[in-house]
Here is the input.
Amino acid sequence: MGVLLVEHAFAKINLTLDVMGRRPDGYHEVDMVMQTIDLADVLTLEEDPAGAITLEANASSVPLDERNLAHVAARVFRANSGVNRGVRILIDKQIPVAAGLAGGSADAAAVLRGLNRLWGTGKTTDELAAWGAAIGSDVPFCVRRGCAVARGRGERLEPVNHRMHAWVVLVRPPVFVSTGDVYGALRAEEYSRRPRSPEMVRALAAGDFEAVRAGVHNVLAPVTFRLYPEVARLAERVRHVAGVPVHMSGSGPTLFCLLPTRGSAQRVYHALRGFMREVYLCRFLPSALAPPRGGRPSVEP
Ligand code: ATP
Here is the structure.
């Protein structure tokens, strides 16, 4: 058996998501605060002596061929690094798929970090993040982790260093939401007049939990609720049962509540488990776990 290593692929939630307009290239100009949470896929990478890139996963909902973003990332890594070795990638999928939690992007980022370690290529986090932008807009953030304001298509990052501890209860409604349909249904008059990220960054820096929770904002939520009324109904039910505000991550359909303590989060988690199958109890991944700019390419949790 060859060299084998484990890399965690952490999910993200959006604390803010503003769409500032449409760009000439057809993409939307976004401004969002992204926060890594400790819900993670576990990737095992093993040298493949035959020189091929192969993939296995414990989930039927993701493609296992070259369309999988982990596979794309391995090819991007080989092309950019010039290293032409093979790898077997095993994905233990824990992050709900197509849920607004960037599961595919997180896997791609974990492959970039993991291959850098496996093949000893010594690339910096900046280099890996730049390669990641070619795979998907959220991949650079998933390479860095922690908390950041993301602009442009989501690939232009400004790290936010904060020490805020917060618990997150996630609810994944059993509804398939298409990210493309949600952006496509966003009307020009719904574009944000101003980004909410500056207020959120101030609240995080001040460690003010109530201000953070009050500042959570997602311009796509009304659009997803309009297209998928069952998600809107569920959000109302979750709010009623949890007794705290309910938010949506990315283009949805995942809903989340922020709680200040483990005890309060556990109460909400158990109450929601009473009527929802997919509920997750997690917390912010501290920024300290995210590698510093240009620092070591990978830090194990
Ligand atoms: P997006 O907002 O970019 O659609 P998401 O966070 O909502 O992302 P993902 O879990 O990343 O959702 O899945 C989006 C799509 O990407 C799915 O249709 C899935 O089949 C495909 N995909 C490719 N590779 C992966 C992977 N490794 N993990 C999850 N999904 C993947």
Remarks:
- Residues 103-118 form the longest helix (16 residues).
- Residues 62-63, 68-70, 97-105, 107, 179, 250-251 surround adenosine-5'-triphosphate (CB under 6 Å).
- Residues 236 and 246 are 8 Å apart (CA to CA).
